[in-house]
Design goal:
The complex is a heterodimer of chains A (321) and B (148). Chain A is built from eleven helices and ten strands. With 321 residues, chain A is α+β, with helices and mostly antiparallel strands. Chain A has one domain: Alpha-Beta Plaits. In chain A, the strands form four sheets. A four-stranded mixed sheet of chain A has the order 8-1-10-9. In chain A, a hairpin with a 2-residue loop joins β2 (106-114) and β3. Chain B folds into two domains: 1-64, no CATH class; 78-148. The longest helix of chain B is centred in the middle third of the chain and has 28 residues, at 47-74. Chain B is globular. At the A-B interface, α5, α10 and α11 of A face α2, α3 and α4 of B.
C-alpha cells in the first residue's frame, strides 16, 4: 500500500519536475501512466553521450544521503579470527573516485574511438537495481529489501555486514563499514562486521514524490526515470538515433538501470578502470536463473514422492496376490 | 517390495546432512572460520553453489517426505505407532518445508514479500532447523525411533 502511494506521489511530483522524468504529453497520458505505473517498477535511463563528468550527481547524492551515512563507534571491537578484515572509510569520506560506504555513486572514465575520432566518455556508476536482485534474495537475514517500485536497499538497522550481498552482486556494489550496526549489540567479536551500504535510489525522496537527487542535480539531463517498459522504449529509440548500444536491459536477467552509449560496452569495459569499488561493464548472465529453474523443478518433488509410494503399493499388492 | 529401513535412514541422513550444511552455507560463516579452507570444502564459501545444493537437497527431502507419508498411509499403519519424538520431528519437518517453500517462492523474479514476512521466514526457518538438529541428535543418542 505504501509503495503504491509512493509511486502515485512519485508520478505527481515527477510531472512537475520538468526534464527529469519520463515525458508526459497531457493529463490523459499522465493518467495512463498512473494506471500503468501500479504494476510496473521504475527504471532509470542513463544517456552516456550526455554526461560531462562534472560530478554534480555525486555531490548531490552525498548531500541527499548524508544522514544515512555510518557514524562508527571506535575503537572497533576486536574480531575473531584475525582474518576478519576491518573496513573503515570514516576517515576517507571525501573519496569520490570509487564506491565507498560514503559514496554511493561515482564517475567512471573511458576513452574510445568513434568514427575515427578519439573521445572521452564519463559514466555515472552505482547500484543497477536488478529486477531479481541477488543481494536481496540471498541475504540470510532479510536485511536487504526490494520494493515494488524496483529499487533495492539495505536496512542499516538489520544488516550485520557479512558482505554476502557484495559477493552475490555481479558488480560487487555494496561496500562495508566496520564498527556500526546491529552486530555491535550481538556478538561483535564472533559474528558480523558492520553494515553494507549502497545506492538506495533515494527511496525516501521517491516516497515524497521527488526524483532521486542525482537525477535532479544533473545539468545535462543524463538520467531519466519512469516505468521500465517506457524507459526501455526510450532507450531503444535513443540507441537507434545514435547508432548506439544498451547495457542493463538483460544483464543479470534485467536491471532497472539502463545505459545507452555511442560506443560498444565491450570497448568501454576495456577502457574503464576496474577493481575494488569500481564495477565492470561486462555482460552478466542471470545469476538467479539456476535457482529459478530448480524452483520450478521443486513442483515435481511431491509428485515423484507420491508416484513412488503408489508404485510401491501397487507392486506390493501384486506380490500379495 | 519393501524399502529396507536402513536405506530409508541413509537417504534421510544424507539429505539432512547436505541440506543442513548448505543451509548454514547461506550465512557467511564458513570462510570466516576457515572451514571452507579445508580441502574439498571450498564450495561452502560459494554462495551460488550452496544455494543450488540447498535447493536440490530440498527437492530430495520433499519427495522423500511425501513418499514416506503416503507409504505410511497406504500400508494402513496405525497413527499411534508414531512415537512422541517422531511426531515432534514430523511437525518440525513440516514447518521447515513450508517456510522453505515460501522462501523459494520469495526468490522468484517479480515476487515481492512484505519485508517483515521475509525476516520472520528467515528466522523461523533457521529456528526449525536448529530444533530439528537437536531433536535428531537426542533421538540418535537415546535411540528414539520414529515409530514403535
Amino acid at each position: 500500500m505504501t509503495s503504491k502511494l509512493s509511486r502515485r506521489a512519485f508520478l505527481k511530483g515527477s510531472i512537475t519536475a520538468a526534464g527529469s522524468v519520463v515525458a508526459t504529453t497531457g493529463i490523459a497520458r499522465a493518467a495512463k501512466s498512473i494506471t500503468h505505473e501500479k504494476e510496473e517498477p521504475l527504471a532509470t535511463l542513463l544517456d552516456i553521450s550526455k554526461c560531462i563528468g562534472c560530478e554534480e550527481c555525486v555531490f548531490a547524492c552525498q548531500e541527499a544521503n548524508a544522514d544515512k551515512y555510518p557514524e562508527p563507534e571506535k575503537p572497533f571491537p576486536k574480531m575473531y579470527p584475525s582474518r576478519v578484515p576491518v573496513e573503515d572509510w570514516s576517515e576517507k569520506r571525501d573519496v569520490t573516485d570509487r564506491l565507498t560506504p560514503y559514496n554511493w555513486l561515482f564517475i567512471q572514465h573511458a576513452s574510445a574511438t568513434v568514427n575515427g575520432e578519439e573521445i572521452e566518455l564519463t559514466i555515472p556508476r552505482r547500484c543497477m537495481h536488478c529486477e531479481n536482485p541477488p543481494c536481496v534474495k540471498l541475504c540470510p537475514w532479510g536485511s536487504a529489501k526490494q520494493e515494488e517500485n524496483g529499487l533495492s536497499r539495505i536496512d542499516p538497522d538489520l544488516c550485520l555486514g557479512g558482505s554476502k550481498c557484495k559477493k552475490a552482486c555481479p558488480w560487487d556494489i555494496p561496500e562495508r563499514q566496520t564498527g556500526v550496526g546491529l552486530y555491535l549489540d550481538l556478538l561483535p567479536g564472533l559474528a558480523g562486521n558492520g553494515v553494507m551500504y549502497k545506492c538506495d535510489r533515494c527511496y525516501n525522496r521517491l516516497e515524497k514524490g521527488e526524483v532521486p537527487a542525482c537525477i535532479e542535480a544533473c545539468p545535462e539531463d543524463v538520467q531519466t526515470i519512469g516505468p521500465r517498459s517506457e524507459i526501455l522504449k526510450k532507450a531503444h529509440a535513443l540507441a537507434r538515433e545514435m547508432n548506439g548500444y544498451i547495457y542493463g536491459e538483460h544483464e543479470n536477467g534485467g536491471t532497472n538501470t539502463i545505459y545507452v552509449s555511442p560506443v560498444p560496452f565491450e570497448e568501454l569495459n576495456k577502457s574503464i578502470e576496474k577493481g575494488k569499488g569500481k564495477p565492470h561493464l561486462n555482460k552478466v548472465k542471470n545469476m538467479m536463473a539456476d535457482g529459478t529453474n530448480l524452483a520450478k523443478a521443486m513442483i515435481v518433488a511431491p509428485i515423484a514422492g507420491l508416484a513412488a509410494a503408489f508404485g510401491k503399493f501397487y507392486l506390493s499388492s501384486k506380490e500379495d496376490k | 517390495m519393501k524399502t529396507p529401513v536402513k536405506t530409508r535412514k541413509y537417504i534421510y541422513g544424507i539429505t539432512l546432512f547436505f541440506i543442513t550444511l548448505s543451509g548454514f552455507g547461506q550465512m557467511p560463516v564458513f570462510k570466516r572460520y576457515y572451514i571452507a579452507d579445508i580441502p574439498g570444502l571450498g564450495w561452502l564459501a560459494q554462495f551460488y553453489v550452496t544455494h543450488i545444493i540447498h535447493y536440490i537437497a530440498a527437492i530430495l527431502l520433499i519427495a522423500f517426505v511425501i513418499y514416506i507419508l503416503f507409504d505410511f498411509i497406504l500400508r494402513g499403519a496405525r497413527l499411534n505407532s508414531v512415537t512422541r519424538p517422531g511426531y515432534f520431528k514430523i511437525a518440525i519437518l513440516a514447518g521447515l518445508i513450508v517456510t522453505g517453500v515460501l522462501m523459494v517462492v520469495k526468490n522468484l523474479p517479480n515476487i515481492y514479500f512484505d519485508h517483515t514476512a521475509v525476516i520472520v521466514l528467515d528466522i523461523t526457518h533457521l529456528g526449525f532447523c536448529m530444533i530439528l538438529l537437536f531433536v535428531s541428535l537426542y533421538s540418535l543418542i537415546r535411540k528414539k525411533s520414529w515409530v514403535i
